[in-house]
Amino acid sequence: MSFSGKVKEELGRHEDHARHCNIAEIAALLSGCADVLEDGEGRVSLIVHSENETVIRKCFTILQKTFNIEEAFFSRDVYREKRGRVYLLRISSEHLAEITKAARLTPDEDRHTLICADTALITQRECCKRAFVRGAFLASGSISDPNKGYHFEIVFPDGEKAEQLQKIICSFHIDARIVKRRNSYVVYVKEGAQIVDLLALMGAGIALMDLENIRILKEMRNTVNRKVNCETANINKTVGAAVKQMEDIRLIEKTRGFDSLSDGLAEIAALRLQYPEATLKELGMLLSPQVGKSGVNHRLRKLSEIAQELRENEEEQV
């Protein structure tokens, strides 16, 4: 099962005891995954559809608990072209008016769906806002595998629904944004810590812990990689400097000889050739008397200047 599926499985088991929270959640659910159908005799019914059985079961449970609907038709195995298995929940016309009135839902005649006409009213309490976000995610949301990246999104067929949800999520200080994707509007969050906050406010505690564990492991790996890369860069820099120093010293030895150098420069030159992998500190400790890193660096830099002068003189002669 995907990480997104696990989150929905957990949210499907979440229960709110307050009626106002159940109404907020069912409003988001029906707004996100329900179609309004009318038969030849003018009777209107509601078809809730989802590829996730957990979503349909959660919807049925809330409706049964909140509106005492017992006779809703529940079809478990339905196939639609190109979509695979789709689960349906049919709500008859005799219950539709009661549900839509309580959840402040009105028909969207162009799309034959429902839209919540007054989210501010049904989400006055913070707990109801949480329930609404949970219902919206169950209806049309997804979370990417945190091992691969951080991405939370909820897809809507129109911008009005997307803006409604964005406003609610942003009230929890989470930076939810909207992007248009083909004919849909997507409310999304990409920052890992804020996705953790979203899981917390929806009530997905187990998924939250799983995500946090993955984030900690990834951060540890990144920290180790940064340190390794930094140390590798330092080693490469040290090795490169040592190679250049030895080239300079060999040039001096070949053209002028160490006898032309002062005692201090001759001593450090001989030590560098003898200990090519030694650090500046280690070279300084081998000197008599011992010299600090800055002193060793000064002498090696002086040798480099001498070698550069020799190269320039060779070029002039040529």
Question: What secondary-structure arrangement, pairings included, does this model have?
Answer:
Elements: H1 3-12, H2 19-33, E1 34-38, E2 44-50, H3 53-67, E3 73-80, E4 84-91, H4 93-102, E5 105-108, E6 113-116, H5 119-122, H6 126-140, E7 141-143, E8 152-156, H7 159-170, E9 177-181, E10 184-189, H8 192-202, H9 205-255, H10 263-274, H11 280-286, H12 293-317
Antiparallel strand pairs: 1-2, 2-4, 3-4, 5-6, 7-8, 8-10, 9-10
Written overview of the protein:
This protein is of the alpha+beta class. The chain has two domains: 3-203, Roll (Endonuclease I-creI), CATH 3.10.28; 225-317, no CATH class. The chain has twelve helices and ten strands. It has helices at 3-12, 19-33, 53-67, 93-102, 119-122, 126-140, 159-170, 192-202, 205-255, 263-274, 280-286, 293-317; strands at residues 34-38, 44-50, 73-80, 84-91, 105-108, 113-116, 141-143, 152-156, 177-181, 184-189. The strands form three sheets. It has a four-stranded antiparallel beta sheet with strand order 1-2-4-3. A four-stranded antiparallel beta sheet has the order 7-8-10-9. α9 (205-255) packs across α10 (263-274) and α11 crosses α12. The longest helix is centred in the last third of the chain and has 51 residues, at 205-255. It is rod-shaped. The termini are far apart.
Could you give a short description of this structure?
This protein is of the alpha+beta class and 318 residues long. It has 12 helices and 10 strands.
